[in-house]
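Team,

Forwarding the record for the chain on the shared tracking sheet. I've put the sequence and predicted structure together so nobody has to dig through attachments.
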Amino acid sequence: MKIVVSDCDHAKMDVETAVFEKAGLSFTHLDCKTEDDLIAQCKGVTSVLNQYAPFTRKVIAALAPDLKQIVRYGVGVNNVDLAAATEFGVQVCNVPDYSMSEVSDQALAMMMALCRKVVQMNAHTKSGQWDYAKSIPVFRLSEQTVGVIGLGRIGRMFCAKVRALGCKVIGFDAYYKPNAADGTEYIEAVSLEELYRRADVISVNCPLTDETRHLVSDAAFALMKPTAYVVNVSRGGIVDEAALARALEANKIAGAALDVTEVEPLPADSPLRKFDNCLITPHMAWYSEEAGLELKRKVAEEAVRMVTGEPVHYPVNKLA
């Protein structure tokens, strides 16, 4: 049973080392970036801890049948071909619960910064001006309707936080309905079109899939209020950035905040950089010191479970 880290940009690997040593196991830390790197360096490997390197069909086919598991450092698995993994009997795992507080906090912080115009007024004041009227209009948060796209773990945690502010919460999820059993009956389930029409703040909290790519598009922006804000802390590509730039240019919405972009880092020539009502952070929503340590521990523990024959805790795909 051979374990490798295909790629990881963390400064230290002491957490993983401690987990593997406790189980009597060891691992090799590689620096794979391409398909060819993975194919050349991961031959004979049983379990791979993976951050960014692309596990395409070509890679998975080349590493089968030895490869049994890919564990992602994070929640998203969009760099792994799930259909190919399932076909070749490779268990894909992620860590869906390590940064729920952090990501929902980031969405909340971005929402409040937009609604209270904190960033723009900070710049305005530091430039030597002192005029609250430059922030007009600002609306009372407790009277706002927040629409949440995606009611998974993070989406529901964000709902609870904005509810505590007094906001009306509406939500859309194709696979989940709010219910009393888990205490989410306060979330009004609506269609996606109704959410776009009614929400004062729209928070994107769903995964990136073929179904959700460019879910927030020109058509969506056309339905939104001119005073609406859009927040995306999920995955770049769910919001069509060209459409967002057009909406901001035409004042179809009041602003946006993105922690994730379609291409990361955000290209220097992106039109989104010019709008002072478009806040952008560098895919940091997942991060806190505590979350980083939890992620590393849980990724390593999931690999240990696989190679020692225990049931994994976070399977993404279902194997026969």
